Amino acid sequence: MADLYDLDHIKLGPDPNQHQSSSSEQSKDSLGSKDRLKTVNRLSAFNKTNHRLEYYLTLIRSSKPGIGLIKLIEDLLSSSGVYVFSEILESKPLVASSENPDHAIYRELLKIFAYGTWSQYRDRQDGLPALNQAQTKKLKQLTVASRASQSKIIPYSELLESLEISTVQELEELIIDAIYSDLLEGKLDQKRQILEVDSFMGRDVELIFENEDLEMDSGGVLKRKGGTNVLELRDRLQNWFDNVGGVIDQLDQYIQSIKTSELESEKLQQKKNDEIRETLEDLALSCTNPQRNQRSKDHKKISPGDHQQLKPSESNQSVA
């Protein structure tokens, strides 16, 4: 089994029955079809996500604070197709539910899913509703997406610890499901025990208002007092900028290598063309004047040394 999983198509190594095409045109067509298929799949997933979000948003906006609203929140957090929650958090029924302590904890839980991570939920678990299996999996996948926004290379050991997962197989299954859900794209390298991130889904951003009680964290960044850092967008944007810069550099190198390869190919082709043209010219010359060509061959057969070795009789015969 190969050490590298291609999570764009979830393949466990190369297919031994698949033959590689020797034609560069077929390769380009294959890559183009693959890119088009990925685009179609992303658009389809995006539309499904939007439909589910609109579905829950419509129901929640038409609800009143109470048991029915709590049930909608629980269903929403269990749904595998909804990963952004800012609009729902700002809906009037959710804001009004904050007045009731028994209902306010569900809005706080929704904030964890919007901005937070699994470890932050664990820190506040005693004061928040319990999660079912689907909700736990979803929050852990969102945590991986948040970690992917900070680094392109994530060690398995770090994810196993932060997500409180006991086996590598369970971790890989969680990430593969996140890939299928369009939370991120990347590769699992079993040999190096790392996740290589290509891209990731942006999460909700928590806002700060002027009248809120703020404090500085250890890095000199503002955060809501007693809460998590709410200006992480700055770091995320910087990481995104660095990642984009790295991708651009790789593309420049790739384009330059293609140009160099094309130039070498043109030179080689020109050399072959020159050789073919010279051969054709020689062939045409021999066809149009065979006697001259024969005399030229005979002349080449007799070297200057041969003239000195000729006997006088042979020389006279030659003159005659």
UniProtKB/TrEMBL annotation:
Residues 28-202 form the PCI domain. It holds the Pfam family CSN7_HB_subdom. Residues 11-34, 282-320 are annotated as: Disordered. Keywords: Coiled coil, Signalosome. Belongs to the CSN7/EIF3M family. CSN7 subfamily. It comes from Phakopsora pachyrhizi. Residues 310-320 have a biased composition (Polar residues). It comes from the Eukaryota. GO terms for cellular component: COP9 signalosome. Residues 251-278 form a coiled coil. This is PCI domain-containing protein.
